[in-house]
Amino acid sequence: MFEITLYDATLRDGAQSEGINFSVEDKVAIAVSLDALGIDYVEGGYPLSNEKDMAFFERIRRKKLRHARISAFGSTRRAKLTVETDPGVAALLEAQTPAVALVGKSWDLHVRDVLRASLEQNLAMIADTVRYMKGRGKEVIYDAEHFFDGYRGNPVYALKTLRAAREAGADAIVLCDTNGGSLPGQVREIVATVMKEVGGVVGFHGHNDSGCAVANSLAAVEAGATHVQGTFNGLGERTGNADLCQIIPNLQLKLKRRCLPDEKLQRLTETSRYLYEVANLALSDSQPYVGRGAFAHKGGLHVDAVRKNPITYEHIPPESVGNERRVLLSELSGSATMLDKMEKYQLAGDPALNKRALQEIQKLENLGYQFEAAEASFVLLVRKMLGKEKRYFDLMGFRVIVEKHGPEAPPITEATIKITVGGEEEITASEGDGPVNALDGALRKALHRFYPHLREMQLVDYKVRVINPTAATAARVRVVIESRDKNDIWGTVGVSENLIEASWQALVDSVMYKLMKDEEKAGTA
Questions:
Q1: Fold classified for 296-383
Q2: Strand 412-421 versus strand 394-403 pairing type
Q3: In the β-sheet with 394-403, what is the strand arrangement from edge to edge?
Q4: Burial of 434 (0-12, 13-18, 19+ CB in 10 A)
């Protein structure tokens, strides 16, 4: 048993994020991944609200979870109904989960203006529902909605609502900062009061409207809370919920409050990125601990210091949360950055080569190139400077035609390409959704006969940035392409006044890098 209990609400609170729509399969997959990480409770949804959540509860019962307990979310009985006749209470039982999260009102304003009930009626609703669920063998986690607002407005009544739940048998009392407006000092003081006046297992559920959800969660723990709720990647309504990807390592590595086995903590980054993928969201590079930029170093002085002693610019070892250190290439790079990259890619560089490579990168970035997200292009550039470049194919020429017949008809794009491979000429054509897609198709078609393993490579991202917008339609553009195969992800870059040419540069680098690394891998196998 660890000191802090972790309760994940991604499948309910997180699903309320704008643009999120989890399928039943998504929800099951997420629950399984959270169980593998070692999360104690996974809240599956609100069974009364929709058929999808009820289908999830039915499906997850077939899974053999190793650690997590599934929880269903619902409200206390309605003012004019008994627990036996309330459909929401019945839906909670129908979900057949070992735990239930019951939300009740602790703010007298909500009792009067939303429930349209008396303060005494609300206390009875809380006690009746908790007692009913306990009588049916459920673990009851009582969520005191709007508790901090309620306490500030009427502390005597807010505490009465907690006592009603506790005396009825609630296993945990969770204080919710539902509007997300509290500050850490306020949370610490109020939680300490609750610990003194009510006692037992106390938890915290924070929203991020004031940007303090994670800090408030930590303040609650420092004041005595041992149950912490949140969502992965901070997903949630409005500005989101407290991010468990920050809470967990802060608890374990900073406050020394264990909540996961050390080996599980090392899966934190992997789990975070998996949830981004399932949610069909772009990664947040600047996300603390798990973001791609969390341990990224760009300035030459920083890189030099980190190479000598990582703690000079890193607050924890990145591998402790499953992340990795990244050294970014840019005009700010110094010789230490060059040396780091040379070593990473096993390029035989000497000080003179490092200096030339740095000068070349600075010159190219002045023209609009950017190598932070395009390390594959950097590798190909240095290999060329070393005389190690290998031309897997040469372009003889290409042509792209875009036709549109009528104002409502979609454009038709076709690319024709002529290349040579080892002196053998190949001409192919391909249609596509746009000129870059058509070029990609034509190039692959031309190369597949010579390099069949290119079939396992795919383009996963394509970004265009105007470098000098004051030049209007004659502006120079930068294209960054991200590609992947079953083993790696890599980025390449191209720059030109012509969008097609910039795209072609990045596309060729992407294919060249794939062929190069596959050849090197085969040579060492």
A1: H-NS DNA Binding Protein (4.10.430)
A2: antiparallel
A3: 394-403, 412-421, 424-432
A4: middle
Q: Distance between CA atoms of 471 and 95, rounded to whole angstroms?
A: 61
CB atoms within 10 A of CB 377: 28
Give the pTM: 0.70
Residue range 207-231, pLDDT digits in tens: 999 999 999 999 999 999 999 999 9
What does pLDDT average to over the chain? 88
- The encoded tokens of residue 401 equal 């035609």
Give the span between the Cα atoms of 82 and 69, in whole angstroms: 28
CA pair distance 20, 485, nearest whole angstrom: 27
Amino acid symbol at 231: T
Closest C-alpha among 38, 40, 34, 14 to residue 201: 40
Strand duo 489-496 + 477-484: pairing: antiparallel
Assess whether the region 5-260 and the region 296-383 belong to the same CATH fold. no
Task: Report the alpha-carbon distance of residue 97 to residue 70 in Å, rounded.
Answer: 6
174 neighbors 229 (Cβ within 8 angstroms)? yes
For 287-312, the pLDDT digits (tens) are 999 998 888 777 667 667 777 877 78
* Angle in degrees, 0-180, between the axes of helices 335-344 and 375-385, rounded to the nearest 10: 90
CA atoms of 256 and 253, how far apart (whole Å): 5
Tell me yes or no: is domain 5-260 CATH 3.40.30.10. no
Phi/psi of residue 115, each to 5°? -75, -25
Contact 417, 395 (CB under 8 A): yes
Type of residue found at 409: A
Collapsing DSSP to helix, strand or coil, 496 comes out as strand
pLDDT band (50, 70, 90) for residue 346: low
Q: Are 412 and 431 in contact (CB under 8 A)?
A: yes
CB atoms within 10 A of CB 32: 17
**How would you classify residue 459: left for phi > 0, otherwise alpha for psi between -120 and 50, otherwise beta?**
beta
Pair 28, 60: CB distance under 8 Å: yes
Sequence ranges of the domains in the chain:
5-260, 296-383, 393-450
How many C-beta atoms lie closer than 10 Å to residue 362's C-beta? 14
Task: Burial-class residue 521 by CB neighbours within 10 Å (0-12, 13-18, 19+).
Answer: exposed
Which pLDDT score is estimated for 400?
A: 93
Q: Which CATH architecture has domain 393-450?
A: 2-Layer Sandwich (3.30)
Separation of alpha carbons 244 and 253, rounded Å: 14
Q: Which residues are known to be catalytic?
A: 302
Query: Which of 194, 190, 188, 250 minimizes the C-alpha distance to 219?
Result: 188
